[in-house]
């Protein structure tokens, strides 16, 4: 099902399921259930196995597993935090929340902590005399299965750690998240609603909609908003929102207008905008571009002075935006025609992607040249608004370079890179 047909409640549930503590808790619960199942299946154990596998034979294994998994879990958490901090130091501090959603890390930590909880639970049941002697056969079987799971996850974890904090792996993670969001937004420019343009006429009787909180708009729940309008049977009710995910709003600020809705209904409309302190990748087309741009700016700082990373980031941004420009919206009309939203701002996309590099890389000819080449290609993109924004940014970048570059030969070289095309207007 198309993601924009899902309500923000469902998307929030999906994001909730990516939380580290939830997967760890589920593994722990399964571990406790497995330990308890041995009591229920005691009567099914053959008598020959009962005599061979005794509690005294199983207890040392459980003790080793419990103590070992506690140490491994603590060590793995420290490694995860160290790797995430290192990755944030190489790119941008805001990448930390992206890395925390890494499923490979979740599975490994969940397996280690789950194994510890299982072993500890089994030891407690044995020591408390709750386990019958015959159940030690099943406990041993479960323990072998847990050990195999731990070994598999440990091998995956070691392989994952080899590139976990590397710059390339972190950039790949950001690019993947950014690409997914850009594709969704390109497919449904108004999040499933009707695109509000300069030609859109808002009825004179439209009443204002006010923001309910201060912060960044994370998501706009157009499916539930559509359901609310349909349930109320509001004839001719139309909602015109002037903000998009990523925009910063202040409580009480007018964020749109609506017709055919009373004040309570308009407050309900505002409540379908999720406003929080941080931006995210759910519907925010420019957020991933901004994170990549911040990585480029950090690489160009005097303390790091890594123009190669900035050039690599420019290439990633160029590819993302060109792919976005060549993609086409979903066929057919809007899913929710009574809801109007502005399209993603091309100016904001180019600004978030290249403004920092244009300023901070202006004094390094290799960076300025690569940026100019990328903006030249984007100025020929099939999306006219994106092309115009790219031309404007190319002009700014050239102005920065004209002021910052010390050599006349480098300034001439950069101007020549435009193929005779002047971007200064």
Describe what this molecule looks like in 3D.
This protein has 425 residues and is α/β, with parallel strands linked by helices. The protein is 62% helix and 9% strand. The longest helix is centred in the first third of the chain and has 36 residues, at 55-90. Mean pLDDT is 85; it is low at 419-425.
What are the defining features of this structure?
425 residues, alpha/beta, five-stranded mixed beta sheet, three-stranded antiparallel beta sheet, 16 helices, flat, disordered C terminus
Total number of helical segments? Answer: 16
What low-confidence regions span 5 or more consecutive residues with pLDDT below 50?
A: 419-425
Task: Categorize the overall geometry.
Answer: flat
- Rg is 28 Å
The portion of residues forming beta strands comes to 5-15%
Mean pLDDT: 85
CA distance, first residue to last residue? 46 Å
- Strand order, sheet with most strands: 1-8-4-6-2
Report the order of strands and helices: HHHHHHHHEEEHEEEHEHHEHHHH
Looking at how many chains there are and whether they match, the oligomeric state comes to single chain
* Helix content range: 55-70%
What are the SSEs and their pairings?
Blueprint: H1 8-17, H2 20-40, H3 47-52, H4 55-90, H5 96-99, H6 103-127, H7 136-164, H8 167-187, E1 193-196, E2 207-210, E3 215-220, H9 222-232, E4 238-241, E5 248-249, E6 254-259, H10 263-271, E7 273-276, H11 287-299, H12 307-326, E8 336-342, H13 346-360, H14 365-378, H15 384-404, H16 408-416
Parallel strand pairs: 1-8, 4-8
Antiparallel strand pairs: 2-6, 3-5, 3-7, 4-6
Helix pairs in contact: 2-6, 4-6, 4-7, 6-7, 8-11, 8-12, 11-12, 11-13, 12-14, 13-15, 14-15
